[in-house]
UniProtKB/TrEMBL annotation:
Coenzyme F420-(gamma-Glu)n binds at residue 303. This is Bifunctional F420 biosynthesis protein FbiB. GTP binds at residues 14-17, 44, 49, 98. It comes from Streptomyces katrae. Its EC number is 6.3.2.31, 6.3.2.34, 1.3.8.17. Residues 232-431 are annotated as: Dehydro-coenzyme F420-0 reductase. Pathway: Cofactor biosynthesis; coenzyme F420 biosynthesis. In the N-terminal section; belongs to the CofE family. GO terms for molecular function: coenzyme F420-0:L-glutamate ligase activity. Residues 1-231 are annotated as: Coenzyme F420:L-glutamate ligase. FMN binds at residues 271, 382, 419.
Amino acid sequence: MTVPSYEVRAVPGIPEVRPGDDLARLIADAEPGLRDGDVLLVTSKIVSKAEGRIVRADSREDAIDAETVRVVARRGTLRITENRRGLVMAAAGVDASNTEPGTILLLPEDPDASAAAIRAGLRAALGVDVGVVVTDTFGRPWRSGLTDVAIGAAGVRVLDDLRGGTDAYGNPLSATIVATADELAAAGDLVKGKAAGLPVAVVRGLAHVLGDGSTAADLVRSPAADMFRLGTSEAVREAVTQRRTVRAFTDDPVDPGAVRRAVAAAVTAPAPHHTTPWRFVLLESAAARLELLDAMRDAWIADLRRDGKSEESIAKRVRRGDVLRNAPYLVVPCMVTDGAHDYGHARRDAAEREMFVVAMGAGVQNFLVALAGERLGSAWVSSTMFCRDVVRKVLALPEEWDPMGAIAVGRPAAPAADRPARTPEAFIEVR
């Protein structure tokens, strides 16, 4: 049995790289002893230097802004950002290390193209078929310390998809995709170091990782598959601002666990006198939803007829309730005022009730935002407040429970429309 092994070594003799230098020629002149099947690991900093990606240090913040697509997380002056290449990293990859004083480096404009150019240049200069990986240093969520990863690649199978195979015990592999290019980059960093002036390394003995046409861009997780796109405070703000009133839902079933997690968020809202005024009635069966909505519709029609509305007008108004009728899940939030103070004074008693109503609104807002975080749409409709007796009767609720609307829940049938921008200054008075 052949025991798997490989060799990784740094390449000495690479001179200081200047803008316009032919990087493949510089590496070839250093006599790296390359053979077919080797993998060359090249630090992105010398690629950036050769490509003239150098700016003045006093322009660092402007450079970060220019390279940033979105801020993922911010802690004081540190920004974790997604840059124009889709990479999520500190300061968009703008770096002040291993460059002349007074200058900073931007990442290569197209690291995959840079890797392909070096590979082609080495083939022309040395007649060898090698893989090339352009590396950079990343921090990682959940882990302390830094490591090198692949930001550009050519001639290397960057991912090794083992799904569909089995492990040594015959267990099926259903989720195993190995980031081969990142593993190569990390191995190279062990011999290149951060301050040794050795920006290039060679891996030998792993010819099987060469060539399938993939690039380092394939390592970047798509937004739809990224479960951790934002930092904590950024995710909270995103959930709040992305909450929308959804009026059309798919037929997909709603996860009851997601709704219960949203209830758990709801009951953390502030409330007067350390009370807990929130109750949530979850209508998970179609029969329960239909019974309630039919009774509410009949009560609404009776009210509209008393108002003297025409049958055409009534039919039009009743159709507004379709948002509840067509939703796959319905929630009726209710308020209880247990613990409210009784002052025996109209103004003070009214204010006391208003405190509970405000607490109820805060709880419902928490609930709706938590649903948005679960990728669920919602619509809070006031209709149950106009026929509380009917709702209590159909749902067999205690008399002291006040239904505070109904909430339709489900997967949105279409992306939410853009919300017109609102500047906070329009809503602020400073004294």
